[in-house]
Fold these 2 entries.
Entry 1:
Amino acid sequence: MKTLRGILSGEALSWAGAVAAILAVFLVLMLMVGAPIIEALQGFFSGAFGGRRYAYLMTTLSRTTLIAGMAISVMLSFRAGLFNIGGEGQLVVGGLVAALVGVLLPGPPLFVLTASILAAMVAGGLWALLAGVLQLYVGVPLLVGSLLLNYPARYLASYMVAHPYRDVQSGMIQSHLVPMETWLPYFPGTRLDIGILFVGVAAAFAIVYSYTTVHGYHSRLNGLSPDFARAVGLPVKKLTLQTLAMSGAIAGLVGAVAVFGIHHRYIDGMLVQPLYAWTGIIAVLLVNMVPWAVPLSGFFFAAVQTGAAGMERAASVPKEIAFIMQAVIILFVASRVSGALTASSTRRETDNV
Amino acid sequence: MFELIFDPSFAESIPRFVTPILLAALGGALCERAGVFNIGLEGFILTGAFFAVLGSYYTGSPWIGALTAILAGIMLGLVFAEFNLRRGGNPIVVSIAINILAAGLTTYLLRAIFDVIGAFTDPNIVPFRPIHIPLVESIPFLGRVLSGQPVLFYIAVAAVPAIHYFLARHRLGLRIRAAGENPAALVAGGVSPRIVQLWSLIGCGALCGLAGAQLSIANVSLFVENMSAGRGWIAVVAVLLTRGRPWPLFLIAIIFGAVDSLSFRVQGLGLAQQFTDMMPYVATLLVLVALSWWRKRQTI
Amino acid sequence: MRVDLSGITVRFGPVTAVDDVSLGIEPGEIHAVLGENGAGKSTLMNALFGLVRPESGTISVDGKERQWTSPQDAIGAGLGMVHQHFMLQDSMSVLENIVLCSEPANSLGFISFAEARRHLDERAQGHGIALPLDRQVGALSVGEKQVVEILKLLYRDARVLILDEPTSVLTPQEKDRLFAVLRSFRAEGRAIVLITHKLDEVMEIADHVSVMRGGRLISSEPLSATSKDRIAREIIGGELPPTRERKKRPLGDVVLSAENLEIAGRGFTVGPLSFSVRAGEIVGIAGVSGNGQADLVEALVGLKRPLAGTVSLLDQRIEQQDIEARRHIGMSYIPEDRQRTGLALGATASENANAGRDDRAAFARGPFLNRGAMADFARALIDRFRIRVAGPSAAADTMSGGNKQKLVVGRELARNTPLVIAENPTWGVDIGAIDFIYGELMRMRDEGHAVLLISTELDEILALSDRILVMYEGRIAGEVSGEEADRDQIGSLMTSRAADALAEVA
């Protein structure tokens, strides 16, 4: 197969070109701040994977929990052809509700924890459904509606922890701590909480759902060609709403895990500023929505972020370099694999030779 | 509330809020009409805002600041073109990447160049001064709206008929419309739609750069992390709502700008800041809902 | 101007679309290029016009070898092409469409429409073509749009005009007018290349005939040197399939009926329409595309809610039901656009074959897919409908047009529903697939299913229908029984305004 080999070597070449270009951007940024390259790189790898007793690796895993969680949430929507870019709002609403229920609900710790997580999932799901309802019954495109709903969520949460439910004594804009007994325990001997297990379960669910269920199959057909899904009589509206609800529920779960595992309260901006939702989106795009690869992709981007923090410690490179690298990576990679992303947005072609 | 709306100082502030949305939306309109689905206006504006400060700080001239912003916007437009038009990346993905890139790059450069975190302000940043128009100024009420604004406001308003005329009567304008509607016809006529779309992205970058300049060196004279604060998304909505037609876009920009301005004003009323911050987005959603309902009624 | 193609070869990946073709186009001559879908006619012309770059071979104009880097070069050399899918901007005026890409502009790039008007008047004079130049193209009929395309060529003073299947969108009367215009071009010494698969038209107008099959040139000779039978055999490479015998069968009950159905169409309201389809008959809906057929189909299938009126399927009112419910009651639908609506190209053949099945238990266990059962079903479909595909797990976009269509037809007919709605079911597929699909539709009829066939191909309507309804401007202009139908009668029912735009030419 001469042609196959030709294609493969062409592919390899263009991948090599992309990697070279990404490295070049990286180098330019480093030179700009006059950072010592070797120290910076060492700082990057130890920041992402090293540390005393792998403390930094644990930080990376902790961050993976949130990024991979959001990526899984987004993946379910994207595979169904639903451009839900409102993950941030769903995440924030989930985190807020988890914190408030955790603070306000009396009862045994396990009950409070369970109720909080479920409430967060419901809240995230409803927030996503709102965008779906706006699209299906009002005619506001999902892309725009879901995005715009991010801002009310963000400010509503900010208001809640700034005024009615603020921990005034702390002097910060944040809620009270949830009871210590409800905090997610650490894995023995580490500073990594078991939240990653929740996301692991969500990932397993998403993978099984995508590959083996009728619902997942129908959603994917809708994602590949909405016109087709409609014409063969798939229940498109129901699929849309159910998929969005699942997506939002997982985002809400991630918010709850951030509260009970990491911050133990809701702090204004804690889920927005680190761009978890947006990083989740690009993590999905990096692997072209292939379900089993999504958690790995989330780990990769978490490592880029914690590695950048390590670089800042070791060589004073501003850690925001992580976002630049993320953007550059996704620009190069997404343009290589974006063919399958939206059948709906590509123009009609003919199959006549 | 009513005194507030009819307060001349409220009316006077509207143009400052209209200008960035209008400029960015006109840029977005060029893309929309050319069939480039550029929803990364947020990143374009943010980049423009940063480079306007950079240019003004080093030269002491707001004009050079604006020019720097334009060039930065054009560069970003070229990045968009490279990855969307030439490499065939999905425009939504490229837009999201552009937004993240702009957020990262501006904060990175803020630390790399000015060595500050969060915000940069300095007396060396020279902003645009208000322009007082002699006769107009003396018109009651309206005079204070139409006169005494920074020059970019006048440029933005003049750009509306200019772009309208350009799309209707200019060779490139005609081709931009064709690229958005049936690009195959351009191919058949021997014109590359991609080149046409590249021009629209360059125009979009320049206009968004100016929008950023309005934010950082006309409304204020400083740069704050993420200072575009969602205005790019509102501009995107305005473009989608009007399908990129300049005059309706002007109207929508005025509405959104007025809400933006109002939300700024009512902070003095004891309403929590979070609710006033929320207003532009909720208002945008409500406008979308109202228009969709209205369109539905039209078709039935 | 004389154009010679020599040794042209075009490949798309592993497919050789045009294989070493040489032919000459003489001024003052109408040169017909004939062949089935997929024979390579359009690709050859795209190469001549600079849209496709040939792998080898040369194009020479008046004896001088030329290389096109884009259609601009070909246009500059005096070539012009009317594509099968019109290259028009619906939102623009006729004049804007005509000047697009050749705008008369001042040094700042602003267009002088007055100059354009003058220029066009000069060129179009004497051919009897007239259109209001300020009308929006979207408001024109299909025939009028074709006139715009021809005006574009005149505006650029094309000496060689290539027309790709120009008559497929025209009524017989419009076709006559078009041919008159082409003859007047010929009289002026222009060369005309007519790409077509309709033999009768070639016999009527052509001076020179070239036949292509499987990418090769089979023959190229003056019309006078060949015969209709010979050309027909050259096109298909063998004998024509025998014409089908239509079995007389008693009509069954009404399966589908529409009463006073009104639908929001593009630019006008479609309807009110009333008609019915009975078990055991094929009802054909003829008409030039754009006369409301697409809206009617959407309303019947459930893609669009009607404005008024009722639709009943097996005595149940369905006009407010969604597609899923309608299919469940007993409807199958073969859509016109297999690329977007008929198939999900990114999915496998099996996933496509199993979509939309009602018998969920047959391919699922609880919430989970039964992949084995799905593959078995797909394999059965592939065997029964003789679909050429690597296997159930091959991606749908690896299949050829004809096989994609067979997959769509197979999936829908296998549902065995009382009603089948088929919308241009053989658009763009090869003659073997056409014959097979016709056979399957006839079999459904003979087995007592009701078939509603919507087609813009008059030949298809005539070959299959027991009754023919003709749509014009959103209404049913008339009904003809299949046995008595003749071309001219249906043609006059299909008549549209475009006939006036192409005024009679001496």
Entry 2:
Amino acid sequence: MTRNLYRLSVAGLALGALAVPAFAGGWQTFSAAFPAEACQDGWAACLTAGGAVGPGMLHDTAGRPLPSDTRLGWFDLQPTASFSPFVGLSAYNGPAGGTMPKPVAPVAVASSGQPSNGQPSSGQPSSGVGGQASNGSGQDMSVRVGQSGGQGTQTQMTGMNGQPSNGQPANGQTGNGQPANGQPTLTASNGQPTSNPDMNVQLTRPSQPTPVGAQTTANTTQTPTTNANLTTTATPATNPAVTPTATANTTQTPTTNANIATVQASGDCSDLVSLEPASMMGSLSTAQTKCLEGRLTTESLQTTKAKISLVLINNAEGKGDKTEWERLVKRHLEDIDRSDPDLCYKYSLQLSRGGAGRATGVIRWADYSLENKAKWTGNTYKSRVYALERLKTEAANKLWQDAEATYTTEHTDENEAKSTKYRGMTKDYAREWLDYAKASTQDTKAAMEYCVSAAGTTAFCEG
Amino acid sequence: MSSFSQNVRSTAALAALLSIFGKAAMPSPAFAKAAADDGIPVRVVVHDEQKAPIPTAIIRQPQEADRHRVNAADGSWEASVLYMPDGSELKFTAGMTLNLEISAPGYTTQVLTYQVRKRRNQIDVVLPKITTDDSQIEEPTISFGRDEPRE
């Protein structure tokens, strides 16, 4: 009996052992835990304000593992590093069509085993060019592109001169041999990326918007020559724990800048979005400005005309050329589009800094701006409407003063009629301003003064 | 005799002179009445804070319909009577309280309350300029034209 029971137990155990592989899944079962596109913008790895994000596991505040594309912790509902969706797409500077560049002849890094010229501010030894040779050749490089001090999050790119790293990640080892606390280590070896051939590591500065063309991107598909010139300046900007380092890619950034310079020199103006940064700085070239002016005359779509005109307007403002700015804005408002209350308001404000000769324009564009005041909300609405009412009143007052001065020297009926007309305008606008100021609980002092001055009596304004 | 007649003539001439000069020197009731009807003149001089006359200033009594311009050369205005909308006259008399609103384009209006005296009614009024703070006006940033996707 005991023997039979023993045999049955052994048979059951054997069956159970055989059944385990049937229930166990393959590696593909865990694909959800290691998403190929972990980042919000579709890239496999990126640097966010919360640290580096890669295909590996994230950890929540209690250290529990989470899939890296998780936006909120499963248990604590705390936002993860890739929580915010408000990030732009990573720039891809590789060749079109996803083809990989052919590796060129490897270049030995002279400073093998020596710290790079960029020193990380975390106090750790630099893992820059020639930091640690994982294969002992002394020609590898490990570039730390991101740190998260609290979790030890580090992303490492290891380039190996023509020698693949066995297809294995560095398993939590940084370039200087220190463990990365299980955080992702992106290893790419010449033309053979570990996980994604198009994998880019985007370096962004959370507190500063990166203009187009100014992104510093460490592309894992870079050639050894490029990698050899890659240096690291691991200097946290605001938060040493989470701020990604600004990696100075001495090969790529000049290339990007060179592209901009080439575009500026060639006067190409087909891509308006790419012209915006230069336009904001007022640094559009003469050739580009002429190109845009040319497009403006030939363009049939009114919306495109407006876009071109706004680029030119911003360029003039960036240069500080007020005369040109006024000319461009006047053309924009007269011929292209006057539905933007901000632009009408700003133009009216600019005209108000002139004398009585521009006062009519102030009133006209302030009125256009007020027509579209519904586009503003909250405090912006209150302050802008108040300011516009004020601009109108002051402009009418200038006209009245001018007409009065003329009438005192030339007592004609015409001059008197003008004076009376502008006085009436001042009175009406001041009363409107005063009413709005009262209704929106803003300062009424100046409005009351203009109103009483034009009305000649306090009874009209206090009523 | 002749001396007597000469004395008589001298006395008559003197009396005549006295009567002539006496009439001229002492006001008659009618003359005094006319002067009282005109009212006491009040003079207002309007100038700015730099003591320069404001040629465009206007003076107005609150119940009055008309607005009175000052003299453009010296910024002064003078009157002894005002005419109300109902046709009545407001004569300035000694001891009365006079209310005036003095304004000018670009200047803060002043309301003047003045007790009229028998003589030397000259009032200097200073109008301060209306000042506004431009720094309170915010300047918007003009954005680039971007297409907004339809919802």
